[in-house]
Amino acid sequence: MKLHELTPEEQLKYEIAEELGLLDKVMETGWRSLSAKETGRIGGLITKRKRQLNQGKES
User: How far is CA 36 from CA 6, 32, 41, 53, in A?
Assistant: First the structure.
């Protein structure tokens, strides 16, 4: 996988997985290996970050 070829949204997903200590698991066994709880945490943080970015643009 070439990280520089990812979309900004995919890059964010990988960054959050790394912050949560899940990147190694994802790289070894794929996104499907994550539990519902882990996936939910990533999705929640993506939503939170997007909201923060949008609020910054509106200011």
Answer: 24, 10, 9, 26
Q: What is the pTM of this model?
A: 0.83
Whole-number Å distance between alpha carbons of 56 and 54: 5
3-state SS class at 21: coil
State residue 3's pLDDT score: 64
How many Å apart are CA 9 and CA 13, to the nearest integer? 6
| Number of CB atoms found within 10 A of residue 22's CB | 20
CA-nearest of 1, 15, 6, 2 to 50 is 15
